[in-house]
Write a structure and sequence with these properties.
2 copies of one chain form a homodimer. Chain A has 219 residues and is mostly helical. Chain A has 2 domains: 24-63, Homeodomain-like (Arc Repressor Mutant, subunit A, Orthogonal Bundle), CATH 1.10.10.60; 76-211, Orthogonal Bundle (Tetracycline Repressor, domain 2). The first copy, chain A, is built from 9 helices and no strands. Mean pLDDT of chain A is 89; it is low at 1-13. At the A-B interface, helix 5, helix 6, helix 7, helix 8 and helix 9 of A face helix 5, helix 6, helix 7, helix 8 and helix 9 of B. The structure holds a DNA duplex (30 and 30 nucleotides).
Chain lengths: 219, 219
DNA sequence: AACACTATTGACCGCATGGTCAATAAAGAC
DNA sequence: GTCTTTATTGACCATGCGGTCAATAGTGTT
C-alpha cells in the first residue's frame, strides 16, 4: 500500500467552508455509495467518503452517527430510488405471458445495466450476515415484490391455459435467475472476463424460456 | 456488542500443548472457512479462527504470514476441492442435450446444496475488488471452465440440429443462471424467506429450458 | 459593523485487531 | 535422565480508523 511521496507542491485547495445543512446528507450518501461500491463496506474509510463529499470527517458524523447508520442510509436511498420504477411496472399483469416475459426481462436488463443496483446487490450479498435487518428490508421491499408479481402473472397465465402447470415461484426463478447472475457476474469479473451483453441476454433468454431450446424433431 | 461478564467460573480448559506441524495448516484453514463464512472476511477476527482451530493466535501467523494469505489459502482449498468434481463431469459432452441439461442442473443442485461453495461464492462476490487476483483465478479455474463446457455442448447440439441457433454462451447463462441466483438467494436470505428447493428447481428449470413455458396453442 | 447562531472543522482519543517475538515446553536423540 | 531442536504460545506492540468535541467561521439579524 505505498503512499504517494506526499509532494506538497500544492495543497488540496483548502476550499472555503460552506454551510449547506440540507444538501449535505444526500451528498454524503452519494459519496458513500461510490466508496462502498469501490471498496466494500468493511474496507471503506469514512475519511474517504468525507473527502469525496467535499466535507470534513466530522461532518459525516454530524449527519450519520455511525458507520452502520450511513450504510443503512445508503441502502435505503438506493432502495427507494428503485421502488418507484417498480411501482410503474405493477400494471398489466394480465397481458399474455408471451409479451410480458420479454418486457420484464428487457426492463431488468435496463435497470441492471445503467444504475447502481448491481453494486448494491454486491454490498448486500457481502454484508447480509452483518446486517440481517437490511437483508430483510430488501427482501420484503424488492425481491419479494418482484418475485410475487412474476409468480402472480405466471399463475394467471396458467389459469388461462397459456403455460404449463408447475411451481410458479420456481418458474419466476427460471425467468429472473440469469439476469441476476449476469448482474453479479459483471460486478465480480468486470476486469477479468468478457461481460455478457445484457439486452441480448434478455432477449434471447425470453425466447428460450417461452419456446424452449429444443427444435421440433424433424426426423 | 456487549461482552459476556467474564465469569471465570471455569477456565477454557488449558488443553496441553501439542506439536503437529503438518496437521496445523489444514485445521487452521478449516476453521478459517467457518469463521469467514460466518462473519465475512473483513469482520472475521484471526483470534477466533485460532480458537476454533484449537490453537493460539501466534500459531496462525506461523503458517500464514498475513490475513490475506490465509484468505487466499482458503479460496485455494475450496477451489481445488471442487475442481476434482468438475473434471469428473467433463466426459459425455456429446450426449443428447435433452439428457445433458437435466444431469448438469441436478449436479449443480447437489454441489450447491451440500458443500461450502455458496459461502465461498458469497466471499468472492464480497471481496472481488479487494482480491482481484482471486476473482481471476476462480474465473479461470471454475467459472470459465463450466461455462466453456456448457457452451461447447450447446454448440455441438446446435451443429447436430438438436437445438435452436443462437448465442451459445448466453444459452449457458440461461441454463446456469437460476442455480447461481438461488445459491446466493439461500445465502443471503437464509433466515428471511422461504428458500427454493434446489433439486425441484433443477428439475423444473431443465424442463422449462428445454421445452419452454408455453403450451402449444390449442385454440 | 457588531452580534448571535450554528454548521463545519480537524486535531485528538481509545480501542480493536493484525502482526511480532522472546519464552516455553513437546518430542526425539543419546 | 539430560540435552537439543523447534512447534507453540500469549503478552506485547503498532497502527488504522471509528468516533468526539472545543474551536472556527459562514450566514442572517439588528
Amino acid at each position: 500500500m505505498a503512499k504517494t511521496p506526499h509532494s506538497n507542491a500544492e495543497k488540496p485547495k483548502a476550499r472555503p467552508r460552506q454551510r449547506r445543512k440540507d444538501a449535505r446528507p444526500s451528498e454524503i450518501i452519494e459519496a458513500a455509495i461510490a466508496i462502498f461500491a469501490e471498496r466494500g463496506f468493511g474496507a471503506a474509510r469514512l475519511e474517504d467518503v468525507a473527502r469525496r463529499a467535499g466535507v470534513a470527517k466530522g461532518t459525516v458524523f454530524v449527519y450519520f452517527p455511525t458507520k452502520d447508520d450511513l450504510f443503512r442510509a445508503v441502502a435505503q436511498t438506493v432502495l427507494t430510488s428503485h421502488l418507484e420504477r417498480l411501482h410503474g411496472a405493477a400494471a398489466d399483469l394480465d397481458r399474455p405471458i408471451a409479451e410480458l416475459v420479454p418486457m420484464f426481462l428487457a426492463q431488468a436488463a435496463a435497470v441492471i445495466g445503467e444504475g447502481r443496483l448491481p453494486a448494491m446487490m454486491r454490498l448486500l450479498v457481502a454484508e447480509s450476515r452483518q446486517f440481517p435487518d437490511l437483508a430483510r428490508v430488501w427482501h420484503d421491499e424488492v425481491v419479494s415484490k418482484v418475485l410475487g408479481m412474476l409468480t402472480l402473472a405466471i399463475e394467471r397465465a396458467q389459469a388461462r391455459g397459456e403455460i404449463r402447470p408447475g411451481n410458479a415461484r420456481l418458474y419466476a426463478f427460471s425467468i429472473m435467475g440469469p439476469m441476476l447472475a449476469s448482474a453479479l457476474f459483471r460486478e465480480v469479473f468486470r476486469d477479468t472476463a468478457p461481460l455478457p451483453d445484457l439486452p441480448e441476454l434478455a432477449e434471447q433468454h425470453a425466447r428460450t424460456i417461452l419456446d424452449g431450446l429444443l427444435l421440433p424433431d424433424a426426423s
